[in-house]
């Protein structure tokens, strides 16, 4: 309960900062994905570590946060680089490109950094408003409050969980001319929201229905709250349909088969690397009618899949994976996506920039670790609520 309060507080504050930034954009086109990236990154960083990582300008983080961000940059670059040993197993042990050596060195830096943060939290703690704690402090309390039944978390397990959240929720960067550059909007949360807004712009009737629901539940005198989300069934359907058409990780993280087995007539040798094609499953015409069309109503009562969830219980739709290795940041990611989509379409009308129209808006996908737009979504946001909603 303590952590849920702190999560909600951090998320709402960061969404408020994003809303004010968009409202003050004026005639300058806004790169929606990049701004969403900053919002989602800071919200998750505050929940995890109790501190913001980046500002809406070029800085904004403290020294430790900047160090953490730099290591995340290197991690994602190494994770995305072409490594010949991944494709020709006999060459893997040779590490011809030095990727494995760099990853081991980076792992030691991560371990030392997180060990320092752990010790700092143990000594000082990291509390939000009214004494509420961030995720790391809560995990440390689970470490300290052993129940005697083997449920105690070790420091190593805490650090591993934090790294899992980094892999699923933080930024993906690319190398451009030897320099590290942010590829706008490629964080899993922000890219999902960017796809959703693009789809809604292309489908004005669906956007109008979602706004009507929001206006009825929330009104025009305040911003969307997390407590409003359960009362927005059509918005929930929009979110599910976005996860279906545009899963942030089109291929699941790779797993290794511990033993040989046979699945549906296919022999899987021990040691095989396995990936689930999440993208293809969600577009299978044998499972979904008109699978390439954006139809949120398929998840509403009377639709074709009214009871399908995205939390790994229904294999037709598994954007976060399933089973024991389901995404560690799933609940936080789902809630953040819902809150951002609801807040954006409730607070703003969006006109496309650079002479684009809804009919010609590109929906081409780009290659990467996450499913990102080939062209960033550039918009002119126009506030549609009472002026005081956009004030700090």
TrEMBL record:
It comes from the Eukaryota. Keywords: Heme, Iron, Metal-binding, Monooxygenase, NADP, Oxidoreductase. It is a single-pass membrane protein. The keyword tRNA processing does not apply. It is found in: Membrane. PROSITE patterns: CYTOCHROME_P450 (PS00086). GO terms for molecular function: heme binding; iron ion binding; monooxygenase activity; oxidoreductase activity, acting on paired donors, with incorporation or reduction of molecular oxygen. Pfam families: p450 (PF00067). GO terms for cellular component: membrane. Its cofactor is heme. Belongs to the cytochrome P450 family. PANTHER family: CYTOCHROME P450 98A9 (PTHR47944), FLAVONOID 3'-MONOOXYGENASE (PTHR47944:SF18). This is Flavonoid 3'-monooxygenase.
């Amino acid at each position: 309960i303590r952590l849920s309060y702190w999560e909600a507080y951090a998320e709402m504050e960061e969404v408020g900062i994003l809303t004010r930034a968009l409202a003050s954009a004026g005639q300058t086109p806004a790169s929606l994905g990049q701004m969403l990236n900053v919002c989602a990154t800071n919200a998750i960083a505050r929940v995890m570590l109790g501190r913001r990582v980046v500002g809406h300008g070029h800085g904004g983080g403290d020294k430790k946060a900047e160090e953490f961000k730099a290591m995340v940059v290197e991690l994602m670059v190494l994770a995305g680089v072409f490594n010949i040993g991944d494709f020709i197993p006999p060459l893997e042990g040779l590490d011809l490109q030095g990727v494995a050596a760099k990853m081991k060195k980076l792992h030691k830096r991560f371990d030392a950094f997180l060990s320092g943060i752990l010790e700092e939290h143990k000594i000082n703690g990291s509390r939000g408003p009214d004494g509420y704690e961030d995720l790391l402090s809560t995990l440390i309390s689970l470490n300290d409050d052993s129940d005697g039944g083997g449920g105690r978390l070790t420091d190593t397990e805490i650090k591993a969980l934090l790294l899992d959240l980094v892999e699923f929720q933080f930024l993906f960067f690319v190398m451009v001319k030897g320099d590290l550059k942010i590829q706008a909007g490629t964080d899993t949360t922000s890219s999902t929201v960017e796809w959703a807004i693009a789809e809604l712009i292309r489908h004005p009737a669906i956007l109008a229905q979602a706004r009507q629901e929001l206006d009825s539940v929330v009104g025009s005198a305040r911003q969307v709250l997390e407590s409003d989300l359960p009362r927005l069934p059509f918005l929930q359907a929009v979110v599910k349909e976005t996860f279906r058409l545009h899963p942030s990780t089109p291929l699941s993280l790779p797993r290794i088969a511990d033993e040989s087995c046979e699945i549906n007539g296919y022999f899987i040798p021990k040691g095989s690397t396995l990936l689930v094609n999440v993208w293809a499953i969600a577009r299978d015409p044998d499972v979904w009618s008109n699978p390439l069309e954006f139809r949120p109503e398929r998840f509403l009562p009377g639709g074709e899949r009214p009871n399908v969830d995205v939390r790994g219980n229904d294999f037709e739709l598994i954007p976060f994976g399933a089973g024991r290795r389901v995404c560690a940041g799933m609940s936080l990611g789902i809630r953040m996506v819902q809150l951002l989509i609801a807040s954006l379409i409730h607070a703003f009308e969006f006109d496309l920039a650079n002479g684009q129209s809804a009919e010609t808006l590109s929906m081409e996908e780009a290659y990467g670790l996450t499913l990102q737009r080939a062209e960033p979504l550039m918009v002119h946001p126009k506030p549609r609520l009472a002026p005081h909603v956009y004030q700090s």
